[in-house]
From TrEMBL:
PROSITE patterns reported in the protein's UniProt record: SAM_OMT_I (PS51682)
Gene Ontology process terms (BP): methylation
Catalysis performed (reactions): (E)-caffeoyl-CoA + S-adenosyl-L-methionine = (E)-feruloyl-CoA + S-adenosyl-L-homocysteine + H(+)
Family under the similarity heading: Belongs to the class I-like SAM-binding methyltransferase superfamily. Cation-dependent O-methyltransferase family.
Cofactor dependency: a divalent metal cation
The entry's keywords: Metal-binding, Methyltransferase, S-adenosyl-L-methionine, Transferase
Protein name: Caffeoyl-CoA O-methyltransferase
Domain of life: Eukaryota
GO function terms (MF aspect): caffeoyl-CoA O-methyltransferase activity; metal ion binding
InterPro entries for this protein: Cation-dep_OMT, SAM-dependent_MTases_sf, SAM_O-MeTrfase
Keyword field contains Magnesium: no
Species assigned in the record: Dipteronia sinensis
Amino acid sequence: MSLDHDDSLLPVSHKGALLQTDNLYQYILETSVYPTEPECLKELRELTYKLPWGVMLTPPEEAQFLSMLVKLMNVKNAMEIGVFTGHSLLATALALPHDGKILALDTNREYYELGLPIIQKAGVAHKIDFREGPALPVIDQMLQDGKYHGTLDFIFVDADKHNYINYHKRLIELVKVGGVIGYDNTLWGGSVAAPPDAPMKKHLREYRDVFLELNKVLAVDPRIEICQLPIGDGITLCRRIT
Ligand SMILES: C[S@@+](CC[C@H](N)C(=O)[O-])C[C@H]1O[C@@H](n2cnc3c(N)ncnc32)[C@H](O)[C@@H]1O
């Protein structure tokens, strides 16, 4: 998408924000996402959209992508940073094998508990280890313990944007060689490609530099190969190679 001629594209929410038109986004949802969306994910999505912070939800086409990725990679041990009501968490948990595990970190248990009855009804709560609190200290503790190095197949990072580079420094130790870290929102509403003086909403302006820096760091990190996908608000997959 080019932002050269239409700055009005900048202040949009992250739901399908990177596609050229709302109609095209709607077409993808109606043709390829909604027809096979599990009922539990639909229920959780609809519940979440009604909340004041509903816009934080990982959009349905991205949840579908995460599910596909987890299955393609045969993920068994996963981690998620930024759970909210559990939409991406549920998509991942559904895709994991019966004995798969996901460590889910969020500072706010209340939102998670809104989604929890749906997760329980879906029969995947046993795969989830939810821990309330800031993610960085939990990760630091895991690194200190020493037994988690190189153990995770997949990590999805969708919280605490200004710490993404700090997460990366640590998560690269926890993900196994061949495993993947996915950083969400790396195109940040398209703002990363806008001129510095372009008009944009406050939240876009606030984190634009964070993502510009992160994208540069990831692109030259020799320990990973990356692929930045314009799904949702942009997700960068980092496959650990050394
Ligand atoms: C964008 S939402 C996550 C959306 C979620 N992945 C989904 O599928 O709907 C970001 C979440 O990160 C959480 N959060 C913010 N700072 C955090 C931190 N330092 N550690 C862990 N979670 C944090 C917030 O409470 C919020 O629920």
